[in-house]
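Aim 2 progress. For 1-acyl-sn-glycerol-3-phosphate acyltransferase, the working sequence is reproduced below.
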Amino acid sequence: MLYRLLQFIATILIGPIFRLRVIGRENIPDDDGYILCANHKSNWDPVFLAIIFSSKIKFMGKKELFENKFLAVFLRSIGVFPIDREGRDLKSLKNSIKLLKDGKVLGIFPEGTRTHNINRKNVKDGVAYIAIKAKKDILPVEIVSTYKPFKKTYIYINEPIDVNKYLNMKSKEAMVKMSDEIFNGIYKKQLG
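Predicted structure tokens for this construct:
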């Protein structure tokens, strides 16, 4: 309920300030149970995604955000859950897979942090691992913005990445190739 209220307020207040322009809405799956994967340059990115996607997105957030008790309560109340970016966080991985199998939309920034450098090495294999284990597709989204008020922000929703083509590959090979495709999907416009 809090998520929907904040989504509504953000749509009215923040959407017009950043002049959100969405390209590729037809690529959004009709059913839930997919991974929403986007590049990440600003703290505004999850807000932009929450505005344009009608489905409630369950975002992963770095565990450090949950060190402040008040912020932790707020984040959990809107469906954000912590992940330890330093190693294999089995609890968060299992939670992610369960959310997907329950038909939820999982929001992940595959670079693991905000970054201004477009570099394949920044994309972690964890997203591919989750997609393969849950057998769920990935929807790559590219956010192109100056993050300055009253300048246009473009959100490109690219074609989904079909997990099925990776299921018969060896695990490491599948994760590397899928991560390559994720990188190309979240930077499609900027890479040309």
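The helical segments are 2-17, 45-52, 69-77, 90-101, 126-134, 171-186, 188-191. This observation will guide construct design in the next reporting period.
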